[in-house]
Amino acid sequence: MIGQVFSWLTDSAHWTDTPIDTGIATQLLAHIRFSLIAVGIAAAIALPLGLLIGHTRRATFLVAGANALRSLPSVGLLVLLTVLIAPHFYGRTDIGYVIPTEIVLVLLAVPPILSNTYAGVDNVSPAVTDAAKGMGMTERQILFGVELPCSLPLIFSGLRSATLQVIATATIASFVPLGGLGRFIYDGLQQQDYPQMISGGVLVAALAMAADLLLALIQRSVVSRGLSGRFSRAVVVTSTSERTEVEAG
Amino acid sequence: MKHKFLIAGATAAALALTLSACGSSSSTSGSGGGTIASKLIMGGPPEFKTRVDGLPGLAKNYGVSFGKYTVTDTGGPVTVNALKNGQVDAADLFTTDPSIAANGFVILTDPKANFAAQNILPIINKAKATAGVTSTLNALSAKLDTAGLGALMVKVVTDKQDTDAVAKGWLSDQGLATTGTAASGVKLTIGSANFPENALLAQIYGEALKDQGATIKYKLNIGSREKYVPALKDGTVDLMPEYNGSILQYLDPHASATAPDAVLAALQKVLPSNLIVLNQSSAADSDAIVVTKATAAKYHLTSIADLAKK
Fold first, then answer.
1. pTM for the full predicted model
2. How far is CA A9 from CA A164, A171, A205, A233, B92, in A?
3. How distant, in Å, are the alpha carbons of A20, A51, B162, B200, B305 from that of B149?
4. What residues of A are in contact with residue B73 (Cβ under 8 Å)?
5. Whole-angstrom distance, CA of residue B105 vs CA of residue B172
6. How far, in Å, CA of B153 to CA of B195, rounded?
7. Tens digits of per-residue pLDDT, A119-175?
């Protein structure tokens, strides 16, 4: 079976489009597009909201409320929204199916981003914010100059788990006539073409891992060294040798 | 610090590129040598792409190859909506689907029998098939046709009318609601599969036989063939409405007959010994290529063969 999956994935005919079948390349791009739009919208909603709730420590019930959204069954909601929304769009457009899919994915991505951002800001030590206040920083400066950088590790962890969940769940777009890597899973099941089905799953997993790796790299370069404690060897070595020189001298 | 902005900038640029590439990838391309079909988008279930009577069958029997195929669902709401709103031009639906009548869709005829016949017929325990029962059911099957059954399904599915009342209404409309004694003294248990059309047919059979004096007990919505065929064999159910193509495929997975009479002949050879089938009606619930009224008028379509014209 592993051999069949490998040969399915490496067959160049499966990567290109024909009038009947859409290839892996196009479906991969479609999958990335659905996921990016969903995570983008979710971040635009949840990041400012999380920062605000964390900074003011007001309306924390919103975080609990958003977490309750996680229990919504995605497929059921997708079908319900499609039945409500799709009949309003006519002609050669898939927008009537894209909107329900994105709503479902955004609802899935908001809770982890919101609760992690809130928790990140909320967990900044009061000693740090007090010191900032003592230095005469304004509320805005404290939020963006102290609390935001200090909570970046948690914010990134929320963003990463939201991205993983969205990429994995975007496969349900194939329940309504949309593309994405879920197409191979759903079609493979119906056509009893199991190598195709497993290949779809493998591709989704690979995309999720690649996205997580990318976010991890961004996180590495964005989060302050003072928080992550990661100093390059060169810096450490230079400073110790300098110190030795100083001590020797 | 500069390093940080460089990475952020590069990431943003990569994302923008990806998005713009996605935007341009949705264009469609046609092939098939300028036939009507090559200008159309076909919608249906995923397995229709590979099924013997799906796209391969349409190409083999009619030389029809569509410009594009969009996977929707198996004769469900997504397919109906996509056809109605123009996301697809032709769709694979079932011939008695109430949405066909409700939306004025046109069923393209299948003269070369690409889709196996699915004529409705009663399957009955030999011991219960008395002359009176047989003549009552045969008279009923003679009046049942696909359009008529489709209209009844609109009443059941769309208008949410009681199936029992719809069954009685149809019998009296057809002049079949006459009381008699043809089936008096016969006790029958009538079963049905678990979908509305089959339950309605079971009640049509039941009401007609009741009028002729039979004692009827219903076991509706039993489930799939894996459940009710054994019940027919062991006599817990005496009578069921069936579809000749599907029951033949169930009893003989290698059956290749597609025309109604050939299917019936093949079916009679593989039936369990205690069961017989009575006359089949012209009503059929098979796969069909369906187009909107506007598309049919625009390209003068009445048969699947018309799709291969230039």
1. 0.74
2. 22, 18, 14, 41, 29
3. 33, 61, 15, 10, 25
4. 175, 177
5. 28
6. 11
7. 999 999 999 999 999 999 999 999 999 999 999 999 999 999 999 999 999 999 988
d(CA B94, CA B84): 15
CB-closest option in A33, A175, A221 to B19: A33
Query: Is B31 touching A (CB cutoff 8 A)?
Result: yes
Domain boundaries, chain B: 32-115+287-308, 120-277
Residues of A within 8 A of B84 (CB-CB) are 87
How many separate domains does chain A show?
A: 1
B90 phi/psi in degrees, rounded to 5: -135, 150
Nearest to B77 among A30, A83, A90 (CB): A83
- Residue A226's domain is classified under what CATH number? 1.10.3720.10
Query: What's the fold here for domain B120-277?
Result: Dipeptide-binding Protein; domain 3 (3.10.105)
How far is the C-alpha of B153 from the C-alpha of B161, rounded, in Å?
A: 10
Distance of CA B98 to the CA centre of its chain: 11
* C-alpha distance from A88 to closest chain B C-alpha (Å): 8
Q: What was the pLDDT predicted at B308?
A: 93
pLDDT at A249 over 90: no
Identify whether the C-beta of residue B88 lies closer than 8 Å to the C-beta of residue B145.
Answer: no
Work out the mean pLDDT of chain B and round it to a whole number. Answer: 87
| ipTM > 0.90, yes or no | no
State the nearest Cα–Cα gap between A195 and chain B, in angstroms.
Answer: 15
The string of pLDDT tens digits covering residues B56-91 is 999 999 999 999 999 988 888 889 999 999 999 999
Query: What range does the domain containing A107 cover?
Result: 2-248
Top-level class of domain B32-115+287-308: alpha beta
Dist. CA B199–CA B206, nearest whole Å = 10
For residue A32, the surrounding DSSP H or E stretch is: helix A24-56
What confidence tier does B20 reach under pLDDT thresholds 50, 70, 90?
Answer: very low
